[in-house]
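Hello again, I could really use a second opinion on something today. I've been puzzling over a protein and I'd love to understand its fold better. I'm sending you its amino acid sequence along with the backbone structure tokens. It would help a lot if you went through both lines with me. I've dropped the whole record in just underneath, so have a look.
***
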Amino acid sequence: DGDADRLGIIDDAGRFIHPNEILCLLYDYLLRHKRWHGCAVRNLATTHLLDAIAARFGESCYEVPVGFKYVSAAMQEHNAVIGGESSGGLTVRGHINGKDGIYAAALLVEMLSVTGKKLSELVAELYATYGRRYMAEFDAPFDAEDQPRLLALLSGDALPTFPEPPTGVNDVDGRKVLFADGWLIVRFSGTEPRLRIFCEMPEQAKAEAYSRVMADYLGISL
């Protein structure tokens, strides 16, 4: 967007590189090649692949609500190496306490120069090392008068009947349902009357199927 606070990338093969992948590539680069040490910060709708990278290097990954102010605050509190969101914003230790797409682009170009590899190769190596993740992302409009009904469905102990039982629930910002091999979150947009569903799983079909289970439970159309 116009204020240059986010980064969008098309790789050498013409593939769109998701902001989740950019965040993970840069965290892995800072730890592996620049020998930095420290944790990462992500919001609760951002890939858990970042957690896997942190764990491999003996670090932690902290989860915060949606909103970059929460990312920045947690980065300062924990002296994190990197913090970001699946919407494309990120920052790095020692830089500003906010999103900077130009800095992120410069760091990505540095990564390509230092490694001497194409971006498509680096993405392939990332998944070969840490495992593949697939994200399904949906959003749907809702009427203001329907919001109380939706809120009621997203509170308390009631949950949709998923193909496998959840391992936990997080209600910090919306409702996040955890599974043995992935997660799903549904939350109200903070900027428009839309309900957002994100689901990350080892297979794309599974992520989409679980998203539809939640949508059917809420009575919304994806």
About this structure: Residues 56 and 161 are 33 Å apart (CA to CA). The two ends are 26 Å apart (CA to CA).
